[in-house]
């Protein structure tokens, strides 16, 4: 009788473990999916900003060149240089290889500079800390 009960408990434990593993895999997939969506939104936002910046750059360039032709003073085209860098940076971010270079740099940081990523204070929060914070927030929102 005892072996039958222990065998059933073992099977239940294995089923629970398999269910937890499946749940963890789903959570990992969901987090990765949400991360990809956030990155896509950031890239779309950067591209939208590029369109506005490049339009501004084009209009200003025409105005600066017209001012230079009229006055023959180099000060009229002085903003051309920083604006060029700004638009080139945004283009590289949106359509160039900047995202790949950022990812490579992030991988180097994860491998070689792990201490730069430590959380301030006591590190990772505990369940007790989170419960305390949750109870504080709950009390303050009911006032």
TrEMBL record:
GO terms for cellular component: plasma membrane. The chain crosses the membrane at residues 49-69, 75-93. Keywords: Membrane, Transmembrane, Transmembrane helix. Signal peptide: none annotated. This is DgyrCDS7536. It comes from Dimorphilus gyrociliatus.
